[in-house]
Design brief:
The protein has 112 residues and is an alpha+beta fold. It contains three helices and seven strands, in the order E-H-H-E-E-E-H-E-E-E. Strands 5-4-3-2-6 form a five-stranded antiparallel sheet. A two-stranded antiparallel ribbon has the order 1-7. The protein starts with a strand and ends in a 5-residue tail after the last strand.
Length: 112
């Protein structure tokens, strides 16, 4: 599974302490420093925010979604989408085309 090694989880956890229990539970199950595949279309997304109704907002970024089903829009447009049910998210690995030039993202299997 892919994770962002530069995401400041210490700062996030400090922020999380004062959030409602339902947000803390969502964050424990769906950490913000991971890459997720969003069903039914398979877009790769990162989390932006958690909502008390059990949904999240996600960022669909061009660096993870190139070509294929997403065509040119996947190449040039980042999008934010809210109201995503978490049961539609699955942690995933980096796509093969991801260059990872800045070294932020790693597949956890490569860390072992």
């Amino acid at each position: 599974m892919a994770r962002n090694t530069r995401y400041d989880m210490e700062m996030f956890n400090e922020w999380l302490k004062d959030r409602p229990a339902c947000i803390q539970e969502l964050a424990a199950k769906y950490p913000p420093n991971r890459l997720y595949s969003y069903a039914p279309h398979g877009q790769l997304v990162t989390l932006e925010s958690y909502f008390e109704d059990g949904t999240v907002s996600v960022s669909i970024e061009h660096e993870f979604n190139r070509g294929g089903l997403f065509g040119i829009m996947g190449e040039i447009c980042n999008r934010s989408v809210f109201g995503i049910p978490v049961d539609k998210l699955t942690e995933c690995d980096l796509p093969e085309h991801h260059a990872n030039e800045d070294g932020d993202w790693v597949n956890e299997s490569s860390l072992q």
